[in-house]
Amino acid sequence: MISNTGILRVFGGFIAEVTVREQHVDDLTITTHPVERGAPITDHAFKMPAQLTIEAGWSAAGAYSQANSLTAGAKPKSNFQKLTDAYNQILPIVGAVGGPSAVGKLSTAYNTIALGNALSSQSSTQNLNDLYGQIAPVIDEFSPEASATLAGIVATIAATQDQQTGIEDGAKPLRDLYEKLLQLQSSAELISVQTGKRAYDNMLIRSIRTQTDQTSENILMITAQLQEVLLVETVQSSMPATAKRADPAASGGVTQKGTKSAVSYSGPIPTYA
After folding, report:
1. Which of 126-130, 165-169, 192-196 shows the lowest per-residue confidence on average (mean pLDDT)?
2. Is the dihedral of CA 207, 223, 19, 68 positive or negative?
3. Share of residues in the chain with pLDDT > 90 (%)
4. pTM, whole model, 2 decimals?
5. Residue burial 196-228, b: 16+ Cβ < 10 Å; e: rest
6. Model pLDDT for residues 83-94, shown as the tens digit of each residue
7. Is residue 140 over pLDDT 50?
8. CATH topology of domain 2-30+43-70+169-228
9. Which residues pair with 204 in a beta bridge?
10. Sequence spans of domains, the chain
11. Residue 200 to residue 193: CA distance in whole angstroms
12. E strands of 195-244, at which residues?
């Protein structure tokens, strides 16, 4: 799974919370007919439009932020953001008691849960309890008192986390964002795309696919296929006025048709009815 940390991945103005896969395809069409030796090869091969497949996803909170114009303070927090907030709050306690070893184990647990569960059907509280469950035994080894303090902090965070979404209907933001993506596709508007490897201009969304099952009921995962539109410039020329074309023999240009010679004819004279 690819996280969106470090590299800004933008898909037609939408920023996915998690990008799972980016597939780039660049093809060159080459003639299968024989080519005369010495002929320009560029006359017999041409570049095809670039194609891109993106698999990306949003939680309900992330979709809500994308589908609505919100100020920073009004944006609901995603499961990923809430897990990160909790991690930052318990990190000093873990570091003070368990030292670098405990911090390392906490960091490993956080990375695993953040990437694996932040876009799953688990709530932010479940993600937090998973994180605490992996680090609590480590803290118990050093200080049961610190472990009890940590448990109280985790319980307080868990009690308030699920109230921070600001979303009454968790499925509605997902439907709204999905509708906006479909509208962008049907508008046939050229978009720009930034991936981890390359930036694209002049792309159209050829297809958008999504699937809902027991693991994706509370998230929006899409697979979008995009194709480049090759833009060219044409040259416009003007024709002479109609009057100048009245006598093409007189107004037309000189054309070289080779040397001509007269041949004598002794046959019958043709007649016309």
Report:
1. 165-169
2. positive
3. 24
4. 0.53
5. eeeebeebbbeebeeeeeeebebbbbbbbbbbb
6. 777 778 888 888
7. yes
8. Elongation Factor Tu (Ef-tu); domain 3 (2.40.30)
9. 227
10. 2-30+43-70+169-228, 77-161
11. 5
12. 199-210, 219-228
